[in-house]
Design a protein that fits this description.
Blueprint (H helix, E strand, L loop, with lengths): L1 H20 L8 H9 L7 H12 L1
């Protein structure tokens, strides 16, 4: 029974993570550019910086 509870917990956490990912705007959209402008530049990933330059500046 304990293993069933553990498996259920892991599955619920997976669903929660997937659900939260759906809340982010698509890369390159105006909403994404605005969201990234609000985020401290020190917290940007290399991919975010590259995508920001590609989609929001040029």
């Amino acid at each position: 029974m304990n293993k069933i509870k553990q498996l259920s917990f892991v599955m619920m956490m997976g669903v929660a993570v997937v659900s939260m990912q759906g809340c982010s705007p698509e890369v390159g959209t105006k909403a994404w550019c605005e969201e990234l402008k609000e985020k401290p530049k020190g917290d940007w990933t290399a991919n975010e910086a590259k995508d920001f330059a590609k989609h929001c500046i040029f």
